[in-house]
Structures are given as structure tokens and as C-alpha cells.
Amino acid sequence: MIDVQHITKRYGRVTAVDDVSFRVERGEILGFLGPNGAGKTTTMRILTGYMPPSEGRAAIAGFDTFDQPIEAKRRTGYLPETPPLYPDMTVREYLDFVGRIKGVPPKQRKDRVAEVMQRVHITDMAARHCAKLSKGYRQRVGIAQALIHNPDVLILDEPTAGLDPKQIIETRELIRSLAGDHTIVLSTHILPEVSQTCQRVVIINKGRVVAVDTPQNLIARLKGAETMFVQVDAGSEDAAVALERVPGVTRVTVSEQPGVAGGYEVESDRGVDVRRELARAVVTRGWGLLELRPMRMSLEEVFLQVTTEEKPEEATRA
Amino acid sequence: MRNMLAIADKELRSYFASPMAYIVIGLFSLLFGWFFYMYLMVFVRQSEQMMAMGGGAAANVNQSMIRGVLQNAAVVILFVMPMITMRTYSEEKRSGTIELLLTSPVTDWQIILGKFFGAIGLYVAMLFVTALYMAILFVYGHPEWRPIAAGYLGLLLMGGCFISAGLFISSLTKNQIVAGTITFAVFLMLWVISWIGESSGPITREVVSYLSITEHFEDFARGIVDTKHVIYYLSFITFGLFLTAKSVDSERWRG
Q1: Stretch 97-116 of chain A: residues touching chain B, C-beta under 8 Å
Q2: How far does Cα B129 stand from its chain's mean position?
Q3: Using CB atoms within 10 A of its CB, is residue A14 exposed (0-12), middle (13-18) or buried (19+)?
Q4: How many other C-beta atoms are found inside a 10 Å radius of the C-beta of residue A155?
Q5: A311 falls in which pLDDT band (50, 70, 90)?
Q6: What pLDDT, in 10s, does the model give residues A33-83?
């Protein structure tokens, strides 16, 4: 549905987006994750035809956003970072206007406006001026605006930014309910959002794609090494030496978790399950095995790792 | 066409949703009314004198009154127009609604022409109010309607030039005050440029008076529709809109 091939965008000497490629299949929700200034908005602006890429090409439903902009735009709904509202219009007037320029036929327009207002729960606000809406409602009108022409592709730039927790949950539910009918790309710098709403994640940093995968795979993949948490009652002996001798174990560090005595973080090669061996090593020495569990990295840690430590080349190869 | 109308309609409605349209129309008709009154008084006195001196040919209301009123109106328009055009693009850029327009399935030209005709719509409303003053003349006298129509055509074309230039300037900046100020300065230049001509050689005078927007209005005010002036105005408008299109497009490349 969306096909991005090697797009690069330069502003003067600054390269905002550097050779970004990805595909999004029909009905999928793709998360675009990266710190502020990573190039998310620029990529989205290229996808929506707001600006052309310096190099490469992007296509929506097979239509190039630069060569066939009208066809591509007809199939795209876009919510920019700040909802593009006209303060002096009422919500209904505004949606009607957007419907008009997005090419909704005059006869269907009234029904479409009513439909999208219902969909995002803003029917009560129909007669209110956009200037007088709260932040949460502005965002919803922004989403309604993107939906008005029932586009195949929805592009949402930070759809939950600046909302309160309740509104964030509502917005995420709304986005999930839109998947299937629409192919969705959303950007965010908040991690839980991605694992909660997206089926696939593109992590972008300094204009480059660092990783593309499902949130689950990302966790597994980026762990690099498996880490086990082991708590041992070894009396006065040092368990670390013994644990290090277990085949497959690469490193043992004393856990820094507060209030835990005898806790160790045991790292091993990826794909090697050392749990049995660890348990045996502990038990044969007559120590007590109090706890043994794999440590799952949260996506947050993955993200930090991806964007701060790993070199892009390594991550894309991994 | 449909897209252009949608945008023109939106522009026009947004003028009337803010106090701007009312201020502009009110201000313009007030000043127009003042000039109208002044010239009418002068005209009435002149005619009375002529009657007293032997009742020769009645003074021509078109030449001695309406012409003056329209010439002054042209100057007032020059002052008022920046208020209409300054927000057209600047405001969209500042508030981010330009992203909506540029990501909608409409072409740049549809947006530009939509904005142009939206502003023309407000301008026509402005001129329409002044047409009521002219109607009074018809009730009490017998002015010729053709020269008046020519004058209004001139006003419309001249206003079109101001609007297309104002649109271009507005497309250059996010700040509508900056846009307004620059627009005003440029209009003023286009008006006073003819003054340099008066004190210089014949060639300079020719060139300079050709450039002055208001100079071309003289004949229209007199009731003459000269294709030379019509073409000047139309090409000025086209050029302004063309520059706007270039500015919008280059903005896109620069980001």
C-alpha cells in the first residue's frame, strides 16, 4: 500500500532523512519511532506529498507522490503535528470544507461529515468554533478531517502528543479500530504507544532507519544476548565463579537490584538456553536456587539501546 | 474549477467571520463617502455659478465630479488592500493549515486562484457599497452610466493588481504584520513612482509612468477603456500570480 524507496531529504547541508526505505501492507498499522528531530515528520511530509524528496521515491497505492500527486493525495488522510484547523469555522463547516477539497461528492458530504463526527465522538461539538475547542477535541477533529474522504492510507504525526492519559487511551483505541479499513502510519516518540497500537515498527534515528520489525521481534532480536536473573542462596561462597563456568555463559554480574541478596545477571550467547545447566550447577553444589527467570528488556530499553549505542549498520544487519 | 471555488468560498467566508471584512468595507465606504460629498459640494457650487453667469452648457457630472471621486478612491484602495491580502498565505503558514491545503488533492494553481478570487469577492463587495452612492446621482441627476462602468472596471482591474501582488508578498512570510507592511510599502512605491517622472526627462517619465499602477487608472476614471491599460493590468495580475506560484513551489522544495 505504501512503498518508500531510498528517500533522502536535504535542507541545505543538513540531511534530515537519509536513504529511508520501507513498505506497509494493506490494513497494517506501522509505528514510526524515533527521538525528536529524527526525521519522522519529514518522512511523513514526503509521504503525504507536502514536499518532494531530494532523492528516491514514495508511492501510495501505486501512485508516486511526486509524479501523480493528485491521485496519491486522494488516497491519503493526514494529521499533521498540529491539527490544521481554521479557528473561525465551526467543526461542521470545517469538515465540510475539508470534504470539499478532498473530493467528497456534494451529495454524500453531509452524511460523511456526520459519519466521521460520530466515529471520533465529536458530534456534540459540531456547532462549536474550532478556536474554542480543547486540545483533545482539536486532535479528534484533526483525525476526523483525515478520515473525511475515507482514504486508504492514514498518516498520523504524533496523534497523542499533548493529550491527557485518558484521551491518549481513547485515541489509541480509535486508531486500532481504524486499522483493517485503513493502512495506518503513525509517528511517536513514546514507546508504549508503539507496542500497544502497532503491528510493525520502524525505528528511525538521525534520519536513518535503524530497525524494522514487529515490537515482539524487536525485543527478542535486539537483546543480542540472553540475560537470566538468578538468585542463589550460596551461604558464604561466591556463586559468580561457579556460574561463569557453566557452558554457554559469557558474563556474570552481581545484580544491582536493591534488597536482593545473592542475585546475579547471567548473560549467555543468543539462542542457547542455559537455564537447565544453571539450575544443575547451583543444585549440585548444595546451594538453594531461589529464583531463575529470563530478563525481558522493555521496548524502552531496546529503543534506548538502538538509538544511543548500536551503530546503524550493526542493527540493520542483525 | 470546483476546488478553486471551494477555496474561494472558504476565503470569502473567513473574511466575513473576522472583523476585518467589516472594518475594511466600513472604512472604505466612509472615506469614499467623504470624497463623494466633497466633490459633490464643489460640483454643485460650480454648476450654480455657471447658471448664474448665463446658464451655458450644464457642467458634466462625469468629468468634473465622478472622475475625481474615483481617482481618490483608487488611493484609498491602495491603503486598504494590504489589510485584505496580508493574511492570505501568512496565516495559513503560521497556523499550519497550509499543510492541509498542500496535502489535499488540489493543485497549487487552484489554491492560488481560489485565494485570488476570494479576495476579489471581498473587493467587489467593497465596490458594491460605493455603487450605492452612485445610485444617488442617478436619482437626482442624469450622469452617463458608461463612463462610470468604465471607472468601476478600472477599479476592479487595479484592485486585482494589488491583490495579486499582495498574495505574492503574503506567500513569502509567516508573519502577517510583516506581509502587510511590505505590501503597503510596495503599493505606495507603485503609486509615487510616477512622481519621479514629473521632474525628469521625457524617457524616464514615459517608463516610470508606465510602471505606476495608479497612472494607468487615469483613463478609466475619465471613462475610457483603453486596451493598453487593460493589458497592462491583466499582465500585472498574471505576473503576480505566477510569482506566487513560484514562491509556493520553492517553499515546498526548501521545506
Answers
A1: 97-98, 100-103
A2: 14
A3: exposed
A4: 27
A5: very low
A6: 887 778 889 999 999 999 999 999 999 999 999 899 999 999 999 999 899
The pLDDT value recorded for residue A223 is: 58
* Residue B192 vs residue A69, higher pLDDT: A69
Please indicate whether residue A62 or residue A189 has the higher confidence score (pLDDT).
A62
Q: Could you say which of 1.10.3720.10, 3.40.50.11810, 3.30.70.100, 2.40.10.270 is the CATH number of the domain covering A224-294?
A: 3.30.70.100
Checking if the pLDDT of A191 tops 80, the result is no
Mark yes or no for CB contact B104/A45 under 8 Å.
no
- Cα distance between residue B118 and residue B98, in whole Å: 16
State the nearest Cα–Cα gap between B242 and chain A, in angstroms.
Answer: 20
Query: Per-residue pLDDT averaged across B208-213, rounded?
Result: 79
Tell me the residue range of the domain where B182 lies.
2-254
What are the boundaries of each domain within chain A? 2-220, 224-294
CATH topology of domain A2-220: Rossmann fold (3.40.50)
* Cβ contacts of B108 within 8 Å, gap of 6 or more: B245, B248, B249
Three-state helix/strand/coil letters over A135-180:
HHHHHHHHHHHHHCCCCCEEEEECCCCCCCHHHHHHHHHHHHHHEC
What mean pLDDT is predicted for residues B149-174? 94
What integer pLDDT is reported at residue A44 of this predicted model? 93
- Give the strand order in the sheet containing A288-294: A249-254, A263-268, A226-233, A288-294
**Strand-strand pairing, A183-188 and A29-33:** parallel
Q: Which of B2, B6, B14 sits opposite A88 (nearest CB)?
A: B14
Question: CB distance A50–B107 less than 8 Å?
Answer: no
Name the least confident of A58-62, B7-11, B54-58: B54-58
Question: Dihedrals φ, ψ of B105, to 5°?
Answer: -75, 60
Q: How many domains does chain B have?
A: 1
Cβ distance of A89 and B17 shorter than 8 Å: yes
pLDDT score for B168: 96
Which value does ipTM take for this structure?
A: 0.86
Give how far B110 is from chain A: nearest CA, Å: 10
Residue linked to cell 493502512:
A183
Which residues does chain B have within 8 Å of residue A81's beta carbon, measured at their own beta carbons? 96
For residue A98, list chain B residues with Cβ-Cβ distance below 8 A: 100, 104
Reported as a single tens digit per residue, the pLDDT across A3-14 is 999 999 988 888
CA distance B76 to chain A (A): 28
Mean pLDDT of B62-89: 87
Q: Which residues of B touch A102 (CB under 8 A)?
A: 104-105
Separation in Å, CA of A308 to nearest CA in chain B: 28
